[in-house]
Design a protein that fits this description.
Elements: H1 9-20, H2 25-31, H3 35-38, E1 40-43, E2 46-49, H4 57-69, H5 72-81, H6 105-122, E3 136-140, H7 147-156, E4 163-167, H8 172-179, E5 187-192, H9 199-216, E6 224-228, H10 231-237, E7 244-246, H11 263-290, H12 297-311, E8 316-321, H13 329-341, E9 359-362, H14 365-369, H15 373-378, E10 385-392, H16 397-416, H17 426-429, E11 437-444, H18 447-468, H19 476-492, H20 506-509
Parallel strand pairs: 3-4, 3-5, 5-6, 6-7, 8-9, 8-10, 10-11
Antiparallel strand pairs: 1-2, 2-11
Helix pairs in contact: 1-4, 4-12, 6-11, 7-11, 11-18, 12-18, 13-18
Length: 521
Amino acid sequence: MALLTEHPAWKELQAESRRAGEWHLRDLFAADPARETHYMRTAGPLTLDFSRERLTAGALQLLRDLAEEAKWRDARDALFAGRIVNPSENRAARHPALRGPVKVDSIAESQAKMLELAEDLRAGKVKGATGKTIRNLVHVGIGGSDVGPRLLEAVLADGRGPRLRFLANADAASLRAATRGLASDETLVMLASKSFGTAEMLRNGQSLREWLAVALGPKAGAHLLAATAAPAKAKAFGVAEDRILPLDEAVGGRFSLWSAVSLAAACAMGRENFEALLSGAAEMDAHAAAAPAETNLPLISALTGIWNINLLGFTSRALLPYAEPLALLPLYLQQLEMESLGKSVSSEGRALDYATAPVVFGATGTPAQHAFMQALHQGTSVMPAEIILAGQDDGPAAHRALMQANALAQAEALAFGADGGTGPLAAQKKCGGNRPSSILLLERLDARALGALIAFYEHRVFLQGLLWGVNPFDQWGVELGKKLAAPLQAVLEGRKDSPPARVPALLQRLGGKGREGHKGP
């Protein structure tokens, strides 16, 4: 597989990017009064306006040439056909199958079981070991098994169903917060882990099992659930076989929110919304699978990223959702993009001499304007922005108008800037503009649109991985830290079964000869 800089179009793109140093967005808009229309594409409930990116028709054509040379259509077809696209683990990536329209039997069965349980929990039909109604659900996971369901719950919760708590961090404070005010005999614990071997999930799960046992004794296991691709491990942990929701080995954790991992979210949003979420994602899948390069939203966005990162040298991106329910989206995309694409070696083991994953950061709407956006407008580093806003919502019209006006104003200010007027502070007030941004407009922030939006990002990650020559479905860097933590933990707990290769000097100050462990919340 050719690397990014080995494609014939690369040298032409380099020459075009050097000319781009002479472009200002003011001039590009002046040269094409209909530029916004020409640089706008729609798929289902999602519209992409990339007119404020520092692109010309010539640059776009060269980027499409690059995609053709990388055989993007073949890669796309392989993904949807279920062929191997994760070479390091010799697997397909079957997350599109989670949203149909034709699902693999095992996936359909697991989803159906999860949704049935979620509806029963919402209706108060589930009883605990002592006969009391289950009113609480604690979701235990980390990474892809945590932030995806939390995002869905934050956006789509309708106020019905059990009280939800999410527990990801192994910090004891998080454990206490997750159980505070809950009656254990009215609580279920969902253990979400594809491998059922994640240290944080196991530690939190063990502590919660002990917490349940205080009131339930040997019946504590009846209050455990698991979503995993390793059912034997879950069973050995104490989860009853009929309480295990299977996951597909070929679906990575950060692509799994469509699965039984999202039981807690399904409890919050209900079956109808969850099915609408899947439907919106399936719409984006159909678009990504069939749309040509000129109108394919994930490809256009992926190529824009390549242009900004590798040719213009902008190696960070601000994500600005102008919708408070999307407050977790920057965190979700940090995990999806930076864990998938943060690699310096190709899928064939070749060292890369170009940037890959950008640093993704962000916050919602107008609070971001009063936090870090000064740096976006006048800082020495150019940081492209991605602005997300909804066309309609159920709130007061005045609030909606304020949010939409601010979103559009930020895009305009970044693109066109303003002179500083006259007087002693003219230089300080000047905003040079020419700072690129894209706008993603959702028809409204509902389940269908959210499904389309998340699927859009998944496909963009897949295509950028192809263009950079990296495998977006493995994460060896994450595994290294886990491997090193285990022997250090053994020292801190006073065990000598797994001595570390190197003992950091701070270990003694942390209590390196072992301390009595805390049991239970």
